[in-house]
């Protein structure tokens, strides 16, 4: 389950990461677009306001043209011009102001307390020398200057765009300005609309991420349930096969005991009963040597030993796999008359117990099958640990069989299946090829990974 959780995490994490990156890029790009569009909007609005300011200043110059344009430089003309300019206004916060070139205020209709004051060194919140810069723009032939100034209608300090021109004969700077709070409000509305759009898009991305994550988890859950069911079916099949193998092994041991041991013991019992009868009645035929009974008893002991070796050979524990293979090969040769050759070429210290037992069981089952079904005359058993693997190879010259059909057969394929599963379960490989006159079984384990 932990592995499946990791796999699901690896599937979901890149998706969520990709959506997070997309969302981050969207935010960054939206901020860039916001700045760009705000700048475009401000440029458009300011361009209109510049034209508006030029028109206002032109109107002011026209209103005093009959004085300044007529060449009058007397104090009366100047006072009359101041009165005209102080009376002019536009909108709620539009007015004209006049400063001499030294920074002294001459006209300010909305802040009359400034009249007569020298504001050359006055700075706004941004540190801008307001009057100095306006006079500098005027001396340049007329120009625009941004600064901050109290707005008459609200009393709050706002950004302002001023436009000033010079009246050189009188030594005046004439100017006016437009407050930019409406530009700021328009930019704020634009930012608000963009942020709302971003929030909506991010919400959509989050919804997609949640739906995608749920879909992945649902798919993983469905896959997990499906795999769990398959695993249950395989487990049941394996349990059935284990039970079948156990029953088959028990039936084999039962047959061995009944067909061989029991018959030998019954025969020995009868022989000893006959000996006892003759000893009890000496007048009958004399008692001869009991060598025959002793030989039968020895045979029974041998059969018990053979069955015991089949279950767990002591040679495998005491002398190792090569000696155990030679033992079962010699037993098969003595019992069946087959020519059996065993060729072990291994180093004992390289044979782990689990793999040795697996190869021994494979050899037992393979020799049993050859004895029962192959009708062979020669069997060759080779055990080799050359290179990087431990390999058992058993070949015979029997009649052969169809490997695929036999393995698929429920009645005859259990032994082959058990051999294959025993080897592969312990990390080895199992190969079986057969044709008339030659059958070869190869079971091997990698030595590099064995301990």
List the helices and strands and how they pair.
Layout: H1 2-63, H2 65-69, H3 75-87, E1 89-90, E2 94-100, E3 105-107, H4 130-139, E4 143-150, E5 157-167, E6 172-179, H5 181-280, H6 291-311, H7 314-318, H8 321-336, E7 339-345, H9 353-374, E8 378-384, E9 389-396, H10 403-408, H11 414-425, E10 429-435, E11 438-446
Parallel strand pairs: 7-8
Antiparallel strand pairs: 1-2, 2-3, 2-6, 4-5, 5-6, 8-9, 9-11, 10-11
Helix pairs in contact: 1-5, 5-6, 8-9, 9-11
What would you note in describing this structure?
The protein has 451 residues and is an alpha+beta fold. Among the domains are: 2-185, PAS domain (Beta-Lactamase, 2-Layer Sandwich); 319-446, Heat Shock Protein 90. It has eleven helices and eleven strands. The protein has helices at 2-63, 65-69, 75-87, 130-139, 181-280, 291-311, 314-318, 321-336, 353-374, 403-408, 414-425, and strands at 89-90, 94-100, 105-107, 143-150, 157-167, 172-179, 339-345, 378-384, 389-396, 429-435, 438-446. Strands 1, 2, 3, 4, 5 and 6 form a six-stranded antiparallel beta sheet that branches. A five-stranded mixed beta sheet has the order 7-8-9-11-10, covered by helices on one side. Helix 9 packs antiparallel against helix 11. The longest helix has 100 residues, at 181-280. The protein starts with a helix and ends in a 5-residue tail after the last strand.
């Amino acid at each position: 389950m932990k592995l499946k959780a990791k796999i699901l995490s690896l599937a979901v994490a890149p998706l969520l990461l990709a959506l997070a990156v997309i969302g981050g890029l969207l935010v960054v790009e939206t901020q860039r677009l916001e700045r760009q569009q705000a700048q475009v909007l401000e440029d458009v609005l300011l361009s209109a306001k510049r034209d508006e300011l030029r028109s206002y200043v032109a109107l002011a110059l026209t209103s005093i043209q009959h004085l300044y344009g007529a060449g009058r430089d007397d104090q009366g003309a100047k006072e009359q011009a101041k009165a005209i300019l102080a009376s002019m206004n536009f909108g709620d916060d539009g007015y004209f102001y006049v400063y001499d070139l030294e920074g002294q205020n001459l006209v300010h209709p909305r802040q009359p307390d400034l009249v007569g004051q020298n504001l050359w060194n006055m700075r706004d919140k941004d540190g801008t020398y307001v009057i100095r810069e306006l006079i500098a723009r005027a001396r340049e032939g007329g120009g625009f200057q941004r600064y901050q100034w109290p707005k008459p209608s609200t009393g709050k300090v706002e950004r302002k765009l001023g436009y000033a021109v010079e009246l050189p004969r009188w030594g005046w700077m004439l100017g006016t300005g437009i407050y930019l709070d409406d530009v700021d409000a328009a930019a704020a509305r634009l930012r608000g609309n963009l942020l709302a759009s971003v929030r909506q898009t991010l919400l959509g991305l989050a919804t997609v991420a949640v739906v995608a994550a749920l879909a992945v988890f649902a798919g993983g859950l469905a896959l997990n349930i499906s795999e769990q069911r398959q695993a249950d079916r395989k487990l049941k099949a394996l349990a059935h096969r284990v039970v079948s193998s156990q029953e088959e092994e028990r039936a084999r041991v039962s047959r061995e005991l009944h067909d061989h041991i029991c018959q030998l013991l019954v025969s020995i019992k009868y022989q000893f009963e006959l000996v006892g009868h003759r000893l009890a009645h000496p007048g009958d035929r004399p008692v001869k040597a009991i060598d025959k009974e002793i030989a039968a008893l020895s045979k029974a002991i041998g059969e018990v030993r053979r069955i015991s070796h089949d279950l767990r050979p002591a040679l495998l524990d005491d002398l190792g796999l090569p000696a155990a293979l030679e033992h079962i090969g010699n037993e098969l040769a003595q019992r069946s008359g087959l020519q059996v050759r065993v060729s072990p070429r291994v180093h004992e210290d390289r044979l782990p117990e689990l793999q040795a037992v697996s190869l021994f069981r494979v050899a037992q089952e393979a020799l049993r099958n050859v004895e029962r079904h192959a009708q062979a005359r020669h069997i060759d058993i080779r055990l080799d640990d050359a290179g990087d693997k431990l390999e058992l190879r058993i070949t015979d010259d029997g009649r052969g069989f169809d490997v695929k059909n036999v393995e698929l057969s429920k009645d005859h394929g259990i032994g082959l299946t058990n051999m294959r599963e025993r080897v592969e379960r312990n990390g080895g490989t199992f190969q079986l090829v057969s044709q008339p006159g030659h059958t070869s079984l190869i079971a091997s384990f990698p030595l590099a990974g064995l301990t």
